[in-house]
Design brief:
43% helix; binds NADP nicotinamide-adenine-dinucleotide phosphate
């Protein structure tokens, strides 16, 4: 353990598995108070024990939230604010891919709803606390999959007209980058930075939620492709770097891969798309009610 992050409070969403779990270990090892989120009590408790054991820190908490429910996100933020007086780092990490179309409790296509609207609402509801704790950081786990779409399909964000797993996943990860760039602009002068990242191709629990052949195929790929993939510990390193490195003080609005700033897709730099996605997301999450 070191004391590099002592006195700092970090939230890591989706910390019950994979990259989020190891990000929580890494930040706890640096001395931060780490609030891990899980949607499942039992899985969360076993993750909490793992993080405490692996980090040697007792300064770790578990809170429950389901990012497929706007009410659950709002409830989590309320509870977090009642129990904590600062937030130095928010790591938006919870998410995944869905091979068949489903909907969140609020009727959004699940991949877009959890991967993008989840990050969007959680961050916005915590912005006041991030600002009063500044200098502070928002770190959002995107993916190289954001390179695939040429832009957001604003006519069918909920994939009602057509759905494909990779299409929806790629768009949600493009949304993470568009969101980060717009957020960093909106936060200019506040001392809160916003960056995003590709964690690598990581042997985590990714895609296992789909069960059956898909889960088996991904596991087989992890075994056969082992030399070209990362462990979850390795996959967490860019998140930990963005959350904690003193080198990144004041650095904002950037995309990273392997802990190095890397160009993101051309589509991600479209400021009109960034603004449009922000405004639509405000309405979808009820942050702003349309007239
Ligand atoms: N693995 C890769 O190669 C890769 C590559 C690029 C980007 N990423 C991104 O990395 C992030 C972490 O994924 P991972 O690879 O570590 O996969 P993972 O092991 O499946 O972890 C995903 C985490 O998100 C949580 N989560 C999913 N849906 C949720 C919901 N509705 N409410 C609350 N929590 C939810 C999961 O909770 P449960 O444990 O309850 O399922 C789990 O804790 C994701 O944003 C993913 O898109 C992964």
């Amino acid at each position: 353990m070191t004391d590099q992050m002592t006195g700092k409070t970090c939230i890591v969403s989706g910390a019950s598995s994979g990259i989020g779990l190891e990000t929580a270990v890494g930040l706890a090892k640096l001395g931060a108070l780490v609030v891990m989120t899980s949607r499942n009590q039992a899985k969360g408790e076993s993750a909490l024990t793992y993080v405490k054991n692996r980090s040697g820190s007792d300064n770790v908490e578990l809170m429950l939230v389901d990012f497929a429910s706007l009410a659950s996100i709002r409830g989590f933020v309320e509870e977090f604010k009642m129990g904590h007086d600062r937030l130095d780092v928010l790591v938006n990490n919870a998410g995944g891919i869905n091979t068949s179309r489903s909907e969140t409790l609020d009727g959004f296509e699940t991949t877009f709803g959890v991967n993008h609207l989840g990050y969007f609402l959680l961050t916005n509801l915590l912005l006041d606390m991030l600002k009063t704790s500044a200098p502070s950081r928002v770190v959002s786990v995107s993916s190289r999959a954001h390179l695939r779409p040429k832009g957001m399909n604003f006519d069918d964000l909920n994939s009602e007209q057509s759905f494909s797993a990779m299409g929806s996943y790629g768009e949600s990860k493009l949304a993470n980058v568009l969101f980060t760039y717009e957020l960093s602009r909106r936060l200019e002068g506040t001392g809160v930075t916003a960056n995003c990242l590709h964690p690598g191709v990581v042997r985590s629990g990714f895609a296992q939620n789909n069960g059956g052949l898909v889960a088996l195929a991904v596991k087989a790929f992890y075994t056969l492709g082992r030399p070209f993939t990362k462990s979850s510990v390795q996959g967490a390193q860019t998140s930990i770097y963005l959350a904690s490195s003193p080198e990144l003080e004041g650095v904002t609005g950037k995309y990273f891969d392997n802990s190095a700033e890397t160009p993101s897709s051309r589509a991600s730099h479209d400021e009109e798309e960034q603004r449009r996605l922000w405004e639509i997301s405000e309405q979808m999450t009820g942050l702003v009610v349309s007239a």
